[in-house]
Amino acid sequence: MIESRGAIPFNDLTPRDESARAELEAVARRVIASGWYIFGPELEAFEREFAESVDCAHGVGVSSGTEAIQLALTALGVGPGDDVVTVANTAVPTVSAITAAGAQPVFADVDPETLLMDATKVAPRITPRTRAIVPVHLFGQAVDMDPIIDLARRRGIPILEDAAQAHGARFKGRPVGALGDACAWSFYPTKNLGALGDAGMVTTNDAAVAARLRRLRAYGQSSRYVHVEKGINSRLDEIQAAFLRAKLPRLSSANTRRREIAALYDRHLHGVTLPTRASERDHVFHLYVIRAARRDALQAALRDEGIGTLIHYPIPVHRQAAYVEHIDQAPFLAVTERAADEILSLPLYPELSDADVRRVADAVTRIAARA
Question: What are residue 132's DSSP bridge partners?
Answer without folding.
Answer: 84
